Amino acid sequence: xxxxxxxxxxxxxxxxxxxxxxxxxxxxxxxxxxxxxxxxxxxxxxxxxxxxxxxxxxxxxxxxxxxxxxxxxxxxxxxxxxxxxxxxxxxxxxxxxxxxxxxxxxxxxxxxxxxxxxxxxxxxxxxxxxxxxxxxxxxxxxxxxxxxxxxxxxxxxxxxxxxxxxxxxxxxxxxxxxxxxxxxxxxxxxxxxxxxxxxxxxxxxxxxxxxxxxxxxxxxxxxxxxxxxxxxxxxxxxxxxxxxxxxxxxxxxxxxxxxxxxxxxxxxxxxxxxxxxxxxxxxxxx
Amino acid sequence: xxxxxxxxxxxxxxxxxxxxxxxxxxxxxxxxxxxxxxxxxxxxxxxxxxxxxxxxxxxxxxxxxxxxxxxxxxxxxxxxxxxxxxxxxxxxxxxxxxxxxxxxxxxxxxxxxxxxxxxxxxxxxxxxxxxxxxxxxxxxxxxxxxxxxxxxxxxxxxxxxxxxxxxxxxxxxxxxxxxxxxxxxxxxxxxxxxxxxxxxxxxxxxxxxxxxxxxxxxxxxxxxxxxxxxxxxxxxxxxxxxxxxxxxxxxxxxxxxxxxxxxxxxxxxxxxxxxxxxxxxxxxxxxxxxxxxxxxxxx
Lengths: 286, 299
What we know:
The complex is a heterodimer of chains A (286) and B (299). Chain A is built from 15 helices and no strands. Chain A has 286 residues and is mostly helical. Chain A has a domain at 68-246: MetI-like fold (Orthogonal Bundle). In chain A, helix 4 crosses helix 8 (160-170). Chain A is flat, with a radius of gyration of 24 Å. Chain B is mostly helical and 299 residues long. Chain B has a single domain (66-293), classed as MetI-like (MetI-like fold, Orthogonal Bundle). Chain B has a two-stranded antiparallel sheet with strand order 1-2. In chain B, helix 3 (65-96) packs parallel to helix 7 (161-171) and helix 3 crosses helix 8. The two termini of chain B are 35 Å apart. The relative contact order of chain B is 0.12. At the A-B interface, helix 1, helix 4, helix 5, helix 6 and helix 11 of A face helix 1, helix 3, helix 4, helix 5 and helix 8 of B.
């Protein structure tokens, strides 16, 4: 049996350790904000956390610099992310309903097949996808390369991870509910649309949130498929900004980075519970 | 196969609901995979149609020292970052699982970095790692001065760059911590109480209760790490351009260059297939070994 004294001591040690780890986690972020507000001269001086003078103009410079199209990149990223979120959430829910509630021959095999696609590395498909998009541009009236289509159209065909998550959720909804609706003459689509979806708010928001986060930070996709700087997403645009400027305007680079994080951070504080619970459930499939 | 009418109807209904995924799978997954296999056996530069050359790309890869080097860089990164990604995060999750009043704040703060988009953390850490002006070396200055050591060059030296990138990856591993924490919270308290009654100390409880009970979660994180690490691309591309002297030229980075810088699509596809086979091999080994160390409740 542990004595109350020993218990208090171990709690104290845990506190110390956690405060130390939290400092490691948060100091870089504070440093980022601090650097973003410093005048040029103070960056190279010995470190200080609070600048003499808050240079909000750094933000303005970063956003309006000649080589950046910050407002445009934000708009592009928002459009891609929104289209991906709507498409992935809706289509994944439809497919997940099929996997969860309709018994048909071959379902188990197809479900296993879908799960196994999560193991396919993107490099396997990215080269052929690129050549397919080139081909489509040359042989059909629909240009893909150099448009945002490759970044959000695939989402409208469901994503394996979201389908899996939603299927697990649908499976927990009592079968009696759909049975009762079926007796009342409700069609399968009606059951999905009017009974399952309204009950699945939490799971749908997890999928929407994850898709948004993924689209917001995606880099390799935009790097391959986008061609003109005016079409870039924030990730890709900032990358060109930082590689052009080398290491010089650290304060402006930090200001731009803060601006990219901000929307995600706001979203997190609005939907904190959805975030944490969503991530927690992903580990449960083991 | 002969189905009853009800079964046939269900089959059509099921396939109708599955149709978005079935079409997407055929167009965005199956077709590219088949094409990728064909390209890997071809000479293909995107401008002319692919020409079948058998296994020549694979032979060339075996004699390509840059290929082997990129594989070595990736494996070195895996050796450093996988243990950290699996066990440092577990340790942090265990601390977060102690019942303390301030836990919600600790959990939020530790999770926060994993929200940061890769481009932002790449820019931030490039600045943090700066040898002369970066926060890390300035924070280490008192210790380093006392030991009469210069500040590590981090991203600027061939033997420091991979460990630096691995350190940075732990910073944004908040997701893994949350997954572990959920696993830890599912361990029944009675097990700890029973172990305590049997005289098990903290180490005994860790080894005989915690580890077996969350071994499925460790296994899940291991599989995710295997799939993820072979695809590391963003951070070296953004932060080091593969340098210095190709010391952070990761597997996927070389693959990307082959495909989109040198337009050697066939060669890149051969690399992609080697990557796929490596993922399958490593996850296969993990699955086989899991019988020995992963414990599922109710089995």
